[in-house]
Amino acid sequence: MFNSAVRHSLVPLFPAPLHRASRAIASGVRIRTLVLGGGTLIGRDEWATRLDALLGRTHVERLVVLGTGCEDLSRALELGIATERGLRRWSSLLQNADLVGVRGPDSQQSLADLSVGSKVVGDLGLLADTLADDGPLTPSAQPIPRRIGVNVAGVEDALGHDRRSQLSTVAMTVSALRDQGFSPVFFSMEAEDDEVARRLAESAMVEMQPFRNNLDDMLTFLMGCSAVLSERLHGGILATALDVPNILVSYKPKCFDFAKSVGLEGNLVSLEEVEPQALAERLIRLSSTKTPEVVRENVSNRRAAMLDLIRGIGE
User: Fold this and answer.
1) What angle do CA 49, 51, 54 make, to 5 degrees?
2) pLDDT digits (tens, 9 = 90+) for 143-197
């Protein structure tokens, strides 16, 4: 979010070290615009507490929510990451925002349930290819033939009831791809993905790319794939931004939220409902097809609208 604002804002923006930001907050600094950016933050008590504390200790002229996701409220209550009191706090905090721009229509509906009006603007990850160190990335070469990127999330709270079965489906899908002459490569979107990815890669005797906290490296890797299967939401978002055909595993409600925002609902799969061979064949077909024009247009429109909003932050 910050990198995008730096590149596109009408006024100069600079990073502030954490200790300086903390001192500024403690001294009651005046903030012209406070931006609540990407991530599924709304609906979680911990983030309501943080935002409330920040607003209470500073003089914020305007609050802008940009590309943020809202939790599925009933699931958040069930998991204990939200309380009724916390949701009331969110409702109060966002009532006075100048703009509440959310990831997708499911977030918009959740906020409507809290009596908060919002606008679907898309996920900020769709702008990721504009943030490379040397400027916007463009594919410099064709994808590596038959290379399929595969991501599994190192989490235990995925939707469904049997995580072991879900991971088994991924392993069998990768084996089916390998047996048909494709080159699946496991990749990690977060450090905690490494352990499960390494275990599955060793079992299937395929390559693995461990997590690197480097956006350019991740984008370059994804551009070299002919198709991607991702459990982490932003694996699918980055592939979509780069126009790499992808299937997104619906491991959390936020995946549905994003898919609906760009018209990719048909590319969602549940690992508990799909057969490994069918999933492998679907990835193979996808690797030789282009993104539907309607999806490309939706992505382009989302990106343009977000850039306009980001530029407006500096006005």
Assistant:
1) 105
2) 889 999 999 998 877 777 788 999 999 999 999 999 999 999 999 999 999 999 9
Cβ 249 vs Cβ 155: under 8 Å:
no
Give the angle subtended at the CA of 211 by the CAs of 205 and 216, to the nearest 5°. 115
The number of angstroms, rounded, from the C-alpha of 74 to the middle of its chain's C-alpha atoms is: 21
User: What are the structural domains of the chain?
Assistant: 2-121 (no CATH), 147-292 (3.40.50.2000)
What letter would DSSP give residue 299? H
The SS3 call for residue 33 is: strand
Q: In whole angstroms, what is the distance from residue 148 CA to residue 185 CA? A: 6
What is the rounded distance in angstroms from the CA atom of residue 62 to the CA atom of residue 99? 9
Query: Where would I find the H helices in 205-290?
Result: 215-223, 233-241, 253-262, 276-287
pTM for the structure as a whole? 0.88
- Residue 172, Cβ density class (10 Å: 0-12 exposed, 13-18 middle, ≥19 buried): middle
pLDDT, tens digit (0-9, with 9 covering 90-100), for 71-118 = 999 999 999 999 999 999 999 999 989 999 999 999 999 999 999 999
Measured in residues, the chain has a length of: 315
